[in-house]
Write a structure and sequence with these properties.
68% of the residues lie in helices and 0% in strands. It contains seven helices and no strands. The protein is elongated.
């Protein structure tokens, strides 16, 4: 991948992530005003709505933390100062277990990618079938023991 295409992809990814985070952002000024007078807030909206608002704000903060950490982890693959700085930031932001989980999921994605269409019930194999003239016989195991070959 050329460097210009890489920057375009990174810019697109970060734009989508930022848009999603901003769209789901709680109304911080309203939440701060409600937290200054919690009894009036609960009387006005009820305990369920207040708990839902607080939970949404907390989960948004966790999503922001993960987004920044995973973006730093992705930028750690870049060479030079950007990669070194991003690697250090990711190591500080994300716990080691999460770093290992992300690496494991990436490896699992590489392993599962060839069989994913078959698991989804696709009728066609993921790779084109060989031409009829290029039929290769599969190897067969010997059924009788033979003499050992080589020393």
């Amino acid at each position: 991948m050329s460097r210009s295409k890489g920057w375009i992809r990174w810019t697109g990814l970060l734009t989508v992530d930022l848009t999603a985070l901003l769209a789901g952002s709680p109304h911080w000024s309203q939440l701060a005003a409600d937290l200054l007078a919690p009894h009036r807030w609960i009387d006005r909206v009820g305990t369920d709505e207040a708990a839902l608002t607080l939970t949404t704000a907390a989960l948004w903060c966790v999503a922001l933390w993960l987004a920044v950490g995973l973006a730093a982890l992705a930028l750690a693959t870049w060479p030079g100062l950007i990669g070194v700085t991003a690697r250090r930031l990711a190591a500080r932001l994300l716990p080691a277990v999460l770093l290992r989980a992300v690496a494991g999921m990436a490896g699992l994605g590489v392993l599962v990618a060839p069989i994913a269409p078959l698991a989804a019930g696709a009728d066609t194999p993921p790779h084109p079938a060989p031409a009829a003239s290029a039929v290769v016989r599969s190897p067969s195991w010997p059924t009788t023991p033979g003499p050992p070959s080589g020393p």
